[in-house]
Amino acid sequence: MAKDPVRVLVTGAAGQIGYAIVPMIARGAMLGPDQPVILHMLDIEPAAESLNGVKMELIDAAFPLLKGVVATTDVQEACKGVNVAVMVGGFPRKEGMERKDVMSKNVSIYKAQASALEKNAAADVKVLVVANPANTNALILKEFAPSIPEKNITCLTRLDHNRALGQISEKLNVHVGDVKNVIIWGNHSSTQYPDVNHATVTTSGGEKPVRELVANDQWLNTEFITTVQQRGAAIIKARKLSSALSAASSACDHIRDWVLGTPKGSWVSMGVYSDGSYGIQPGLVYSFPVTCEKGQWSIVQGLKIDEFSRGKLDATAQELIEEKSLAHSCLN
Predict the structure, then answer these.
(1) Segment 140-153, tens digit of pLDDT
(2) Domain segments of the chain: what residues?
(3) Is 27 labelled as part of a ligand binding site?
(4) Where, by residue number, does NAD(+) bind (predicted)?
(5) 271 is in an annotated binding site
(6) Is 6-155's fold the same as 157-327's?
(7) Which of 31, 167, 239, 247 has its CA 20 to 30 A from that of 232?
(8) 6-155 in CATH: which number?
(9) d(CA 144, CA 88)
(10) Which H/E stretch holds residue 88?
(11) Sheet holding 66-72, edge to edge
């Protein structure tokens, strides 16, 4: 039996990440190789022509799984009946801009998109916020879409998670698929805490802790952390453009694991609603280690947090508390 198509919304679809992610979705990288999709692409009026060009290319690529394309600048039309929403569109920080300026622009964008999703999307829509400040944009979206369950609104820290896996695999010269259970705690910003205290590598002699194999706490507690935190900036410096390819790929990973489940014995990092786990104030969107099953995520419980980690978890939480109050002051 052929499956019914799933409607996937991508906002900011004419931009760099949009251009990278739509073919991935159309090829089945997000929802699986046997799941037909209908792509809903939204962008702003000045990008309408470019958006139409992307639609033409999607048609030209003749993707077998792609059952339809909606390309529009109308947010209501874009949100109609969508099952998955990938919120890439946002106002980027430009040189000389204060954080508050970026925040106020994005707060108004996410407020408007929240009500359009609430009114038009499928009742069980799963939302992934990619645009920065991702955690706080997700928080605003939830506040203005009260009927969407809070469990269905998440933000992207899988990119940072994948970056951490990549750094460990490079350092140890092992295949990245053999490294698992790193954690990104907190905000998708330079205060995030990439944590390897529970991470392992599959070796010929069984699973070994990353700390034991790296055997260099100094590197793991300093350079490793800053490399992951600053990786986005390093890519902008090298490419003169942001890390669109890896962001698109990790957004697919995030949704795929959320919908289809995480492999047994491993977890991933997702920005989700805090329920007070690990002493993090409830009501923040905070990155935790999670496992997913039957379309639901659960925070991994009972991990030991040492003193060094505790300080890092609290510092990134503090930044999110400040962002939340900044966002609310922008709304008022």
Answers:
(1) 999 999 999 999 99
(2) 6-155, 157-327
(3) no
(4) 12-18, 43, 106, 130-132
(5) no
(6) no
(7) 31
(8) 3.40.50.720
(9) 18
(10) none
(11) 66-72, 37-42, 6-11, 84-87, 126-129, 153-155, 268-273, 285-293, 296-299
Q: Which of 93, 127, 123, 94 is nearest to 110 (CA)?
A: 127
Cis bond leading into 133, ω under 30°? Answer: yes
The verdict on whether residue 158 carries a ligand-binding annotation is no
- Does 123 belong to an annotated binding site? no
Which CATH number is 157-327 given? Answer: 3.90.110.10
2 has a pLDDT exceeding 90: no
Amino acid identity, residue 117? Answer: L
Q: What are phi and psi of 70, to 5 degrees?
A: -110, 120
246-275 as b/e: b if 16+ CB within 10 A: bbbbbbbbbbbbbbeebeeeebbbbbbbbe
Q: Is 15 annotated as a binding residue?
A: yes
Cα dihedral 54, 59, 65, 68, rounded to 10, equals 80
The upper half-sphere exposure of residue 17, i.e. CA atoms within 13 Å in the direction of its Cβ, equals: 26
Distance CA 243, CA 12 (A): 15
User: Would residue 161 show up in a list of annotated catalytic residues for this protein?
Assistant: no
Task: Name the token pair of 39.
Answer: 């792509």
| Helix boundaries (H) for the chain | 16-26, 48-60, 75-79, 99-120, 134-143, 158-172, 210-214, 217-221, 223-229, 231-239, 244-260, 307-331
pTM over 0.70? The answer is yes
Radius of gyration of the chain (CA): 19
